[in-house]
Orotidine 5'-phosphate decarboxylase (Candidatus Chloroploca mongolica), 239 residues
Amino acid sequence: MSARSIEQPILVALDVATIETALNLVGLLQPYVGGFKVGLELCTALGTPQVVEAVGKAGGALFLDLKLHDIPNTVAASVRAVCELGSAVRMLTLHCQGGAAMLRAAVAAAHAAPQRPLLLGVTVLTSIDGEALHNELGVGADLETHVVHLARLAQACGLDGVVASPHEVAAIRAACGPELLIVTPGVRPTWAARDDQRRVMTPTEAIAAGADYLVVGRPITAADDPVAAAARIVTELAR
């Protein structure tokens, strides 16, 4: 039941179409970053076990961003299957919106395994702003209040951490204390484009706000020189 963590704070998002592209990035970037996020695009194209095996053999620590969201029994079974994929999988996401019963079922399944990844609850996607939260999703609370509510729910259900926009990191840290891990997408250096992310912050600002891990994708993977881009972020954080 021991959890496997990642030492360095930068997690590179491998949101690419082919495993060849992903493995090339792993080979280039592994010396500079803590691990690699793989999500629905690559796992749907190739299959989750195949992706985990390939990236694991290449030496990459995996943040498996599956965002599980289903009835408790189905999510628990999925967590058990992920735990059997091996030690390369260090983190796994599931949606806090699935509710307490689903979250607790996931925690129970993970803790029953001989080894497990860290379980992270996704709060509100960084592509959702306050207007979309109210008008499209029908949530009455303001965005920060809703995110903190979901983070507290995740913590109460026994999850190791949450995934949240950098703009909610400080509020989560104040509400949940230092023990809850916070993984932050929506991180953009000042020299990178925002793309489709609405709630963004620089890597240095996100760490200062209380984030433990930073998910960085296109500013590194779409750069003319991905290694130089990753090294630049590492240097900025070191300062």
In short: The first strand starts at residue 2 and ends at 4. Residues 16 and 63 are 15 Å apart (CA to CA). The longest helix spans residues 143-156. The mean pLDDT is 91.
